[in-house]
Design brief:
With 338 residues, this protein is of the alpha/beta class. It folds into 2 domains: 86 residues, Arc Repressor Mutant, subunit A (Orthogonal Bundle); 202 residues, Vaccinia Virus protein VP39 (Rossmann fold, 3-Layer(aba) Sandwich), CATH 3.40.50.150. The protein is built from 16 helices and 10 strands. Strands 6-5-4-7-8-10-9 form a 7-stranded mixed β-sheet, with helices on both faces. Strands 1-3-2 form a 3-stranded antiparallel β-sheet. Helix 13 links the parallel strand 5 and strand 6. Helix 10 runs parallel beside helix 13 and helix 14 packs across helix 16. The longest helix is centred in the middle third of the chain and has 16 residues. Keywords: Methyltransferase, S-adenosyl-L-methionine, Transferase.
């Protein structure tokens, strides 16, 4: 092993990291960072701007400054360096809305008995994240993050590299926000998209398609990916962040379904975190996802590249290619139907 020794300070900071998360969640919800966009303000002025109790805001601001999420000169509070770009909602690079996904109530609740999930080898929830009815997926579909945008861009580039033609038929399975299929439709005017997911999620996907001016080019397939009629054949099938919800055996079963609706010469593309290529410290996000899926699902995790190759091979796909996503800790797996 290499690296610095683990200290009491490390122990305390790790044990109390949840408080920093709670601070960020509260500040985003109250729009504290927006209130400081115009420059430093004291606690009373911030309290008036956000419409909250002065004492409560004073305590919150002091704690935010203590952990480095705000600056302070002892009287007034200010945004940290870079905060105007990432924390203020009017910024084109605003990223703080991702807190609702990265540290949402569903994650906090599921991790409350992580030891129990470890003992049992899977979720303690009655209805886990592998179900279309899992409430978190509505929050997921309701917004996109900078990571999702980077992954969607990489997906579109991979499809264009393969020469999809002028009017590809695209299946976005387990579509969530449907960003992947919709971004491709933006780039290829003749493309048509079939979006599959639970009905409650598809309502949000419909809204996104309408806002992008693509409503007339999308067909919706409500239901479970394992048994809903998928139609086809499709030239492109994308399963973004879907296979990690399932064990390798169940993932291979889903891929066999997708193989049946993929046209000869078509491509199935998955997007998500992978493990096994580098030490765990270099794959932090993937291992944290695996931890979350241990608490949320019976058998899901961030699969290794080798596991993806086996799953695709068992489903009859050939020419499996793995591509890193620039600017995000993700990989695309692109497979052609033999």
């Amino acid at each position: 092993m290499t690296g610095a020794a683990f200290t009491r300070k490390d122990l305390v900071e790790t044990a109390q990291a949840f408080k920093r998360t709670a601070l960020l969640r509260a500040a985003v919800e109250l729009k504290v960072f927006d209130a400081l966009a115009g420059g430093p303000r004291d606690a009373a002025a911030v309290a008036a701007a956000v419409g909250a109790d002065p004492r409560g805001v004073r305590v919150l601001l002091g704690a935010l400054a203590a952990v480095g999420l705000l600056g302070s000169d002892g009287t007034a509070f200010s945004l940290p360096e870079g905060g105007d770009r990432l924390l203020v909602s009017t910024s084109p690079d605003y990223a703080a809305d991702s807190v609702r996904l990265l540290a949402g109530d569903a994650e906090w609740a599921a991790l409350a008995d992580l030891a129990g999930a470890v003992r049992g080898g899977g979720t303690l929830l009655e209805h886990g994240a592998d179900s279309p009815a899992f409430a978190y997926w509505q929050d997921f579909a309701g917004q996109t993050t900078f990571v999702a945008e980077a992954a969607a861009k990489a997906f579109v580039e991979a499809v264009l590299d393969a020469g999809p033609g002028d009017s590809p038929r695209v299946l976005d399975v387990g579509c969530g926000h449907a960003l992947f299929g919709l971004r491709l439709a933006e780039r290829i005017p003749g493309a048509r998209v079939w979006a599959q997911d639970g009905e409650s999620v598809l309502r949000l996907a419909r809204g996104r398609a309408a806002s992008m001016g693509l409503a007339d080019r999308v067909t919706y397939l409500p239901g479970d990916a394992f048994d809903v009629p998928l139609g086809g054949p499709y030239d492109v099938v994308v399963a973004a962040n879907l296979l990690p919800l399932f064990s390798p055996e169940r993932g291979a079963l889903l891929l066999r379904r997708l193989a049946e609706v993929t046209a000869p010469g078509g491509r199935v593309i998955t997007v998500g975190f992978t493990t096994g290529e580098r030490p765990p410290a270099a794959e932090h996000a993937a291992h944290m996802l695996s931890l979350m899926l241990l608490a949320w699902t019976p058998g899901g995790e961030a699969h290794s590249v080798a596991a993806y190759r086996r799953m695709f091979g068992e489903a009859g796909f050939a020419d499996v290619e793995v591509r890193p996503v620039g600017g995000a800790p993700l990989h695309l797996v692109v497979a052609g139907k033999s």
